[in-house]
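A reminder from the course coordinator: this example appears on the midterm review sheet, so study it carefully.

Given structure:
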């Protein structure tokens, strides 16, 4: 949002910046038929200084907008052999729901598996940088207040790579520390919607236990 309209010439009527709400409908997992809206009631605001951002976050993950009060971390698999932020973003940009285009990749972070992205690489998306709602959960509260993390792979067929597991553990730990997401807020997609995502071979309970211990037993 721009705030530069206050400098108007004499006689000119100041025009307030307009927040454009895009009523876009997108799905949760790619196979979803019943789709939630890709929209949010809140508007993110740009940060004026890096001092307002979380210092514990690696520089590459620093948002460009002020932090949202995240309450959940929602874990997904991409259900694909290979992928990247770019390939998922490109695919989602081509999608429409009821004739309306999607904003783009629905997740906040993607973790690569060595096919399309480096194995274990953690990449934030535009939704994370702008601290806006996701389009991944198929559930309004979890889309609005959940950080969507997708690991590339189909974990119904084979488990995540060791590098992916190390990275998702690290990402969860950093996000929990920085945004005070409760351990009870760490969920798999299948916990909030009827879906196989993130796959039967994804060690969700192990990650939850790990997070629980890392937080000193704090739920
Ligand atoms: Zn999912």
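Designed residues:
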């Amino acid at each position: 949002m721009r705030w530069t309209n206050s400098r108007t010439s004499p006689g000119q009527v100041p025009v307030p910046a307009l927040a454009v709400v895009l009523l876009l409908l997108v799905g949760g997992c790619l196979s979803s038929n019943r789709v939630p809206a890709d929209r949010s009631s809140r508007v993110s605001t740009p940060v004026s200084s890096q001092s307002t951002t979380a210092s514990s976050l690696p520089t590459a993950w620093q948002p460009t907008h002020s932090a949202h009060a995240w309450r959940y971390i929602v874990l997904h698999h991409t259900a694909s052999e290979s992928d990247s932020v770019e390939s998922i973003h490109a695919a989602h940009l081509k999608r429409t729901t009821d004739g309306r285009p999607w904003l783009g990749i629905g997740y906040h972070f993607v973790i690569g598996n060595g096919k399309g992205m480096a194995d274990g690489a953690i990449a934030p998306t535009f939704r994370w940088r702008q601290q806006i709602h996701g389009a991944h959960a198929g559930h309004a509260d979890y889309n609005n207040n959940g950080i969507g993390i997708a690991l590339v792979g189909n974990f119904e067929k084979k488990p995540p790579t060791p590098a992916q597991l190390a990275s998702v553990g690290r990402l969860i730990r950093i996000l929990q520390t920085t945004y005070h997401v409760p351990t009870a807020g760490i969920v798999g997609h299948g916990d909030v919607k009827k879906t196989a995502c993130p796959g039967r071979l994804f060690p969700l309970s192990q990650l939850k236990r790990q997070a629980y211990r890392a937080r000193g037993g704090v739920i």
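The pocket of zinc ion is lined by residues 28-29, 76, 189, 195, 197 (CB under 6 Å). Confidence is low (pLDDT under 50) at residues 1-28, 31-35, 49-53.
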